[in-house]
Design a protein that fits this description.
By secondary structure, the chain is of the alpha/beta class. The protein has helices at 13-22, 35-47, 62-75, 99-127, 148-167, 193-205; strands at 3-7, 27-32, 52-56, 79-84, 131-137, 174-180, 214-216. Strands 3-2-1-4-5-6-7 form a 7-stranded parallel sheet, sandwiched between helices.
């Protein structure tokens, strides 16, 4: 059974991806810092006959994140897919925002993505296989004055992923990001989790030599 690790698990895109890949026979490992939320997500997946478990970690803590990823691998299998979906948002006018909040959001959006890459990409390159995907955001393409913390964090992550793509360019490892340019909403045909998850499935199915490294969605 293939193992998919989803980092920053929540009830939106993460759950949509978990259901989509779980329906294809993947084991799903969820990672986030909120145990109650993780328990509810696993119960939801199991109700749909999807095999899933969870691990607790704050993505800004590299050692905790590494322990969660390695425990999943030891218990289940080497991941065929790792999706970094953690994000942080603080709505405030940029001229009234404080630098501590900018740093906190950056640590989650970019720092956690950086930790994830350093933990898993060397092993993927060693195996010459695997998919390392990231959820980006439209604010990375155009800063917004009320969402400065998110804009800066997602822009940093976008640049990071571009660097990782270069690192993996001579391998079969697929590094990519899905830049979601709208608000995730179950009532929106385009931006509901199930539809976004389908975009990840399309990315997953791409073959070496035809990889797309960023989808602006």
């Amino acid at each position: 059974m293939k193992n998919a690790i989803i980092i920053g698990a929540g009830s939106g895109i993460s759950l949509g991806v978990a259901k989509r890949f779980g329906s294809e026979g993947f084991h799903i490992s969820l990672i986030s810092r909120n145990e109650k939320k993780l328990q509810d997500l696993v119960a939801t997946l199991q109700h749909s006959d999807i095999v899933a478990d969870y691990y607790i970690a704050d993505v800004s803590d590299k050692l905790a994140l590494q322990n969660a990823i390695e425990t999943s691998i030891q218990k289940n299998a080497y991941p065929d897919l790792v999706l970094y979906n953690a994000s942080a948002i603080h709505i405030k006018d940029i001229l009234l925002e404080n630098w501590t909040m900018i740093q906190t959001c950056f640590d989650i959006c970019t720092g956690g993505a950086f930790h994830t890459a350093q933990i898993i990409l060397p092993e993927m390159l060693k195996h010459n296989s695997g998919r390392l995907f990231f959820t980006g955001g439209g604010t990375a393409l155009k800063g917004e004055s009320m969402f400065a913390s998110l804009s800066i964090g997602k822009a940093g992550m976008r640049n990071l992923v571009q660097a990782l793509v270069q690192k993996a360019k001579d391998s079969n490892v697929h590094v990519a990001q899905l830049t979601v340019c709208g608000k995730v909403d179950p009532a929106d045909i385009k931006y509901k989790p199930e539809t976004i998850a389908e975009e990840y499935w399309k990315l997953y199915q791409q073959e070496p030599g035809s990889y797309v490294h960023e989808v602006i969605y």
